[in-house]
Design a protein that fits this description.
Radius of gyration: 16 Å
Helix content: 10-25%
Order of helices and strands: HEHEHEHEEEHEEH
Structural class: alpha+beta
Largest sheet: 6 strands, mixed
Shape: globular
Number of strands: 8
């Protein structure tokens, strides 16, 4: 019953699992596809963006395939528990969502282009689920790293809501918040679909194009 309740209820800080001061596992050094380091510090001039759009296996692949992306890694964001494990996140008792950290070169692509990919790669109207994946860890989210990212994310949400409404879809439930701690996931989750090409991917969009144009390159 406790697990069932927390599949559709975000815990408060007091309800959340306590966690631990240090991670209980080591993250791989390099991206299996792009070859670049997974964790920072990143080279000067690159920009960090964080997205949650359902199961992070398929979500990460969407972004590592995009032009201008330097590295990606999956992890847990938006919750209370320090250095959570995958099992703890899936219990619904940490408050985190499965997230993808995208590090990109603003000389090649733009944050607006990544927002378009984000919106079109999942259904942002489903609350605590994506398709058959049910739980608070599958909620749609954008975690921003600057006031400019926050403004662009909010504007893109309004623009996409307009076309979704016109296509008969419901209200967007995506949370857009300043980024808090990002905890990298276990090694076996990183670039999972590169190492397991036939693995599960529950990512699926609405089929409605996002009206964000391909903006000039810039963070």
């Amino acid at each position: 019953m406790l697990f069932s309740r927390h599949r559709n209820h975000l815990p408060t800080a007091e309800e959340a699992l306590k966690g631990r001061p240090e991670p209980g596992f080591r993250v791989p050094d390099r991206h299996t596809v792009l070859g670049n380091p997974l964790t920072g510090p990143y080279p000067e001039g690159l920009v960090v963006a964080d997205f949650g759009l359902g199961c992070f296996w398929g979500a990460e692949r969407k972004f590592w395939q995009a032009p201008g992306v330097w590295t990606t890694l999956v992890g847990y964001q938006g919750g209370h528990t320090e250095n959570p494990t995958y099992e703890e996140v899936c219990s619904g008792l940490t408050g985190h969502t499965e997230a993808v950290r995208v590090v990109f070169d603003p000389k090649i692509t733009s944050y607006a282009t990544l927002l378009k990919l984000f919106w079109e790669s999942h259904d942002p109207t489903q609350g605590f689920r994506q398709g058959n994946d049910v739980g608070t860890q599958y909620r749609s989210a954008i975690y921003t790293h600057s006031p400019e990212q926050q403004s662009r994310a909010e504007s893109s949400r309004a623009a996409y809501q307009s076309v979704l409404t016109g296509s008969g879809h419901g209200e967007i439930t995506t949370e857009i918040l300043p980024a808090g701690p990002f905890y990298p996931a276990e090694a076996y989750h990183q670039q999972y679909l590169d190492r397991n090409p036939g693995g599960y991917c529950g990512i699926g969009g609405t089929g409605v194009a996002c009206p964000i144009g391909v903006a000039p390159a810039g963070g």
